[in-house]
Amino acid sequence: MRKEKILVAEDDRTARVSLVGLLEAEGFEVLSAETGTQAQSLLTNEEPDVALLDIRMPGMDGLTVLRSARAGGLETPLIVMTAHGDSNTAIEAMKSGAFDYVLKPLDFHQLLPQIQRAIEHRRLAKELSSLRTQVAADGVAAMMVGRSPAMQHVYKLIGQVADSDATVLIRGESGTGKELVVNAIHFNSGRSKGPLVKVNCASIPDTLLESELFGHEKGAFTNAAFRRIGRFEEANGGTLFLDEIGELAPALQAKLLRAIQERTVERLGSNAPIPVDIRLIAATSRNLEQAIEEGEFREDLYYRLNVVTIQLPPLRERRQDIPALVQHFLNRGGRKGSITPQALATLDEYHWPGNVRELENTIERALVLAREGIVTKTEIQLRAPSDRMSPHWTDQVPLEIGWQGNLSKLEKSLIERALRQAQGNKSKAAELLGIHRRLLYEKMREYGVE
């Protein structure tokens, strides 16, 4: 197993040798430098996992080494060692991109957890970088984060439908990232140079939505002081995205059906048909099959929209993507945030009723509260356990996959949770579930659980 590599840059020989010995005793591979010039060379050529930089060194001081490393794009976490009372230097170091700083004389028992946090930060950063490279290479979902089997299936579908003009219906709970799928489809399609027009059908009153979609002529209704083209016309040559299509009023459903079938629209106050060349994508978090049974959604419109379906999994069913998503949110906008293993474990155990959007908001709030960009368990604020799942959570169960399909999903989820809690120990996981180990093996093979 590879040892983590640590660079110690310290001009005081006694302090340097002592620190190197303590780190080697903890199992690290240690490099040492007594000047800033040597430290800069080792950082560039060896790319250690963590570097400890003394501020005052001959030839080139620690701050200069720090700034040079950051300017060169080096991602190694740099911990600055500074003397007591030198607060201005510590502040300057953090502003220049230091991961953290420690005061001298060093307390090794306090330094070690900081080093471990830096190593974890580096590991997660590499994981995220690898994920981004892999997804970008696929060419269909460079804007999305996640490599779970469920998300790989989504990427595959995006790649298959992107170059066609087939209508796509994106389904999934609120907060699962439906709009990101729309972006990926559009920007990887032959229409990528055309407009991408988005309309949220739930956020516009019914009395205004018809004009929003189809436009109106001057004088078509009170206060129609000028002609306005609708979103269908704006999207000509590109993609039109209708979000929350399940909230569309019945009267508008009929007009939308006609526009989809004939690829023409009529502005309010006009009988002249206007041809439109669009690719239509719709999304919903509603159970459309149930809405059809209740007479709230047209069945013929459903079949027009449901040409290709992309089902986005809730976050609780793709928990292995949580570390990459967390790192993505921590580093967004050029930030250099990090998270402790305990905080990450807390996030992994949560039910995430608000899905990726709730995770994003949780990380944003934690970063505001975190000291020096390090998110600990203290900064993680989640809903109370009683709020995690609605008393009517069964309303969210997709009836279209049937009784056995839902039982299978529940069994798989319980097995994965037990294995996580047992840290991969299958015997202990079987004991937690109250089943024989042989049955656990059979179910793991059946559901493809590793």
Sheet with the most strands, sense and barrel status: 5 strands, parallel
Spatial strand sequence of the major β-sheet: 2-1-3-4-5
3D shape: globular
**CATH evolutionary superfamily of the largest domain:** P-loop containing nucleotide triphosphate hydrolases
The CATH class of the largest domain, by name, is Alpha Beta
Number of structural units classed as domains: 3
Q: Give the mean pLDDT.
A: 84
> How many separate helices?
18
CATH topology of the largest domain: Rossmann fold
- Number of strand segments: 16
Task: Assign the structural class, choosing from mainly alpha, mainly beta, alpha/beta, alpha+beta, or little secondary structure.
Answer: alpha/beta
CATH architecture classification name of the largest domain: 3-Layer(aba) Sandwich
Straight-line N-to-C gap: 21 Å
Q: List low-pLDDT spans.
A: 131-142, 386-392
The fraction of residues assigned to DSSP E strands is: 5-15%
Overall description:
This protein is of the alpha/beta class. The protein folds into 3 domains: 5-106, Rossmann fold; 149-311, P-loop containing nucleotide triphosphate hydrolases (Rossmann fold); 397-450, Homeodomain-like (Arc Repressor Mutant, subunit A, Orthogonal Bundle), CATH 1.10.10. It contains 18 helices and 16 strands. The chain has helices at 13-25, 36-46, 62-71, 87-95, 108-138, 149-161, 178-187, 206-214, 231-234, 250-262, 288-293, 299-305, 322-331, 341-349, 355-369, 402-421, 426-433, 437-447; strands at residues 5-9, 29-33, 50-54, 78-83, 100-104, 168-171, 196-200, 215-216, 228-229, 239-243, 264-265, 274-275, 279-284, 308-311, 338-339, 374-375. The protein has a 5-stranded parallel beta sheet with strand order 2-1-3-4-5, sandwiched between helices. Helix 5 crosses helix 13, helix 16 packs across helix 17 (426-433) and helix 17 (426-433) crosses helix 18. The protein is globular, with a radius of gyration of 28 Å.
